[in-house]
Amino acid sequence: MIESQRHSYHLVDPSPWPISGSLGALATTVGGVMYMHPFQGGATLLSLGLIFILYTMFVWWRDVLRESTLEGHHTKVVQLGLRYGFIPFIVSEVMFLFAFFRASSHSSLAPTVEIGGIWPPKGIWVLDPREIPFLNTPILLSSGAAVTWAHHAILAGKEKRAVYALVATVSLALVFTGFQGMEYYQAPFTISDSIYGSTFFLATGFHGFHVIIGTLFLIICGIRQYLGHLTKEHHVGFEAAAWYWHFVDVVRLFPFVSIYWWGGI
Amino acid sequence: MAMSMVRSAALRTALRGGSRSSAPPKRSFSSSAAHDDAHETAKWEKITYLGIASCTILAFVVLSKPHPHYDEPPPYPYLHIRNKEFPWGPNGLFEKKHEHH
């Protein structure tokens, strides 16, 4: 931190990334609409927008890492603010996924006459909840245990053990995603097969998407741990990833119980 | 008075990420924070191994079961819904299974 600064807050430098991210989001939205309706150049604009957003994410977070790890701007007060900011973000994610689980239970608790008045709808062959769904749930919970192992290893100053623990966490996450892909591939129904297919793939698909985001987050933490960025006293990025990971593995229980199990028997 | 000050300080450090190892003089009870974390690390390592072992066994059990065969359902109007063409063509990206029929 700069010696002349008489407070512990981080006053950020002007940055081009908010406006570049906004322009990327605008191009993505307009490009997406153009692509889904018969306009020319929609796919190009959509791809450009997505590339712009991904680029912005990369350089913005690179700047944050420089500010915290190299320039020391993330004082105890700043770390507290980051934690306070991450909690409502996770709460909003829980509410986002809850909406899809609610859509599923809304459709299944009183099935309409258009789908035969039963759940699962007539003609839908559902997946056996005792097979891959039952296997994938403990896989994700085990990776939750592995991330706790990594956390204690960081706190105990066991740097190598923490890297191993993160490798275990990420490996279990990849196995989960692999099995989920296999399940989707083998599923006898698709997203366009009745309200069952729509709610099933929307809920499990968005959960799976969050698993992938969490996996990328943990991979970054693993690399940073390997490079020695994370210390006993200062590892907010890892804590955020661990919270996010627990959110993802706890939320897995909802689709497992309500969609696969209750809704599939 | 002194007790309450200690307590509020403890609360503050807990909120600020539980910087257990930041200030050695603040330790008030017998076991040291570093020792606790080492113990917890070993415990969670064992739990992880237990989880991996049981998931591996479960994976063998689940994957060794034969694949169920599904009959093609009657063409109910709510199945295989198509309201308009996809930007890339007539079929969904992951719908190979419908091409066989």
From TrEMBL, chain A:
The keyword Transmembrane helix applies. Residues 5-264 form the Heme-copper oxidase subunit III family profile domain. It is a multi-pass membrane protein. GO terms for biological process: mitochondrial electron transport, cytochrome c to oxygen. GO terms for cellular component: mitochondrial inner membrane. It holds the Pfam family COX3. GO terms for molecular function: cytochrome-c oxidase activity. Keywords: Membrane, Mitochondrion, Mitochondrion inner membrane, Translocase, Transmembrane, Transmembrane helix. PANTHER family: CYTOCHROME C OXIDASE SUBUNIT 3, CYTOCHROME C OXIDASE SUBUNIT III. Component of the cytochrome c oxidase, the last enzyme in the mitochondrial electron transport chain which drives oxidative phosphorylation. The respiratory chain contains 3 multisubunit complexes succinate dehydrogenase (complex II, CII), ubiquinol-cytochrome c oxidoreductase (cytochrome b-c1 complex, complex III, CIII) and cytochrome c oxidase (complex IV, CIV), that cooperate to transfer electrons derived from NADH and succinate to molecular oxygen, creating an electrochemical gradient over the inner membrane that drives transmembrane transport and the ATP synthase. Component of the cytochrome c oxidase (complex IV, CIV), a multisubunit enzyme composed of a catalytic core of 3 subunits and several supernumerary subunits. The complex exists as a monomer or a dimer and forms supercomplexes (SCs) in the inner mitochondrial membrane with ubiquinol-cytochrome c oxidoreductase (cytochrome b-c1 complex, complex III, CIII). Belongs to the cytochrome c oxidase subunit 3 family. This is Cytochrome c oxidase subunit 3. It comes from Prunus virginiana.
TrEMBL record, chain B:
GO terms for biological process: mitochondrial electron transport, cytochrome c to oxygen. GO terms for cellular component: mitochondrial inner membrane. Keywords: Membrane, Mitochondrion, Mitochondrion inner membrane, Transit peptide. Coiled coil: none annotated. InterPro entries: Cyt_c_oxidase_su6a (IPR001349), Cyt_c_oxidase_su6a_sf (IPR036418). Residues 19-33 have a biased composition (Low complexity). It comes from the Eukaryota. Residues 1-38 are annotated as: Disordered. Its main location: mitochondrion. This is Cytochrome c oxidase subunit 6a mitochondrial.
